[in-house]
Write a structure and sequence with these properties.
This protein is mainly alpha-helical and 344 residues long. 71% of the residues lie in helices and 1% in strands. It contains 17 helices and 2 strands. Strands 1-2 form a two-stranded antiparallel ribbon. The protein is globular. It starts with 20 loop residues before the first helix and ends with a helix. Bound molecules: 3-methylbut-3-enyl trihydrogen diphosphate (2 copies) and magnesium ion (MG) (2 copies).
């Protein structure tokens, strides 16, 4: 396989948890080219643009979504061209743009282990450079020459924004249901995972069965990923996560752990009053986060959220059965487990 970037140093499969190392190793050569493309395309004659963009890009990130595009294309047999490189860069630009905007909306101070761009450069710069990266992503998509890819990724971009706006409307509403929560995370997160995967199949001209299988894989992977992200907001080690733990509670964001805890304490007036005061009125005092976490513990909210994520990861893995067996498919299965077991 031309993709065998890590050929020779095959991942240690005796380790029960492979994580994303196999995916990273198999795509290492391609990913180097994607990173070069990203650096080249975030340049501008206006110095503040590369300054802000490189602040977030150089801080790293897992590059999970472009890896999915690369791996999907290679698994489906894409060999000769370079269209997967530009499209993987476009996918990461869309993701990076949403992060710049999201940190403004969420007033987050920490991203990828560093002060967020809004913290360093201000909200205005973050919003405008996010717009620039979105626009660059569209240039890259047009260069791919595929109207189908343009359709998939432009639609995903619109859906992400719908998800963020729907979430804004549900913020501080303790009557938010699990159904609405799933609608939000499907739109803001799973749509891009699904589009990143499907794009790889389209580039490889793999046909509709492979396209749909990869879209299903990406969709459930994205749902699992975001549920776990929302659990990590209550449970992670902040230094490892690189984001401020407890942010969701502080801003009254209604995520799955909270939805489950509220529903399971529905017959307890004290608990209902607590959630209303802290999340709806955002009237919070010392000890409130700790109390929220003890209620989540009592109701097994974090454990059950993780169990739900594991179900989505299993559905994602099942979708891989329709795709060519081999090291890349195995690495994508490992990636589904990673999305549940991750601590960053
Ligand atoms: C963060 O995504 C935004 C969410 C969808 C939760 P990642 O956790 O993939 O962010 P980076 O790119 O690795 O920083
Ligand atoms: C991330 O959402 C932004 C998008 C998915 C568009 P969150 O606000 O839940 O993620 P973090 O915790 O800031 O990374
Ligand atoms: Mg956020
Ligand atoms: Mg979060």
């Amino acid at each position: 396989l031309a993709v065998a970037a890590g050929a020779g140093k095959s991942p240690d499969r005796t380790d029960p948890k492979h994580g994303i190392a196999p995916l990273q190793e198999l795509c290492a050569d391609d990913m180097r080219r994607v990173n070069e493309e990203i650096l080249a395309r975030m340049d501008s004659r206006i110095p503040l643009i590369p300054e802000v963009a490189s602040h977030i890009v150089a801080a790293g990130g897992k590059r999970l979504r472009p890896l999915l595009t690369l791996a999907s294309a290679r698994m489906c047999g894409y060999q000769d061209g370079a269209r997967h490189i530009g499209l993987a860069a476009a996918v990461e630009f869309i993701h990076t743009a949403t992060l710049l905007h999201d940190d403004v909306v969420d007033e987050s101070a920490l991203r990828r282990g560093k002060a967020s761009a809004n913290e360093v450069f201000g909200n205005q710069s973050s919003v405008l450079v996010g717009d620039f990266l979105f626009a660059r992503a569209f240039e890259l998509m047009v260069e791919s020459g595929s109207l189908e890819v343009l359709r998939i990724l432009s639609h995903a971009s619109a859906v992400i924004t719908e998800g963020e706006v729907l979430q804004l409307a549900a913020a501080n509403d303790v009557s938010t249901t699990e159904e609405t929560y799933l609608k939000i995370i499907g739109a803001k997160t799973a749509a891009l995972f699904a589009a990143a995967c499907r794009t790889g199949a389209v580039v490889a001209e793999a046909g509709s069965e492979a396209e749909e299988a990869l879209e299903t894989y990406g969709w459930h992977l994205g749902l699992a990923f975001q549920v776990v992200d929302d659990v990590l907001d209550y449970s992670a080690a902040q230094a490892r996560l690189g984001k401020t733990v407890g942010d969701d509670f502080a801003e009254g964001k209604i995520t799955l752990p909270v939805v489950l805890a509220i529903a399971r304490g529905a017959d307890d007036a004290d608990q209902q009053a607590f959630w209303k005061r802290t999340l709806e009125q955002v009237d919070q005092h010392d000890g409130d986060l700790a109390h929220a976490m003890s209620l989540m513990g009592r109701h097994r909210a974090l454990d059950d959220a993780i169990a739900g994520a594991r179900d989505h990861a299993a559905t994602a893995k099942a979708a891989l059965a329709a795709l060519p067996a081999g090291p890349i498919r195995d690495a994508l299965a490992d990636t589904a487990d990673f999305c549940v077991d991750r601590d960053y």
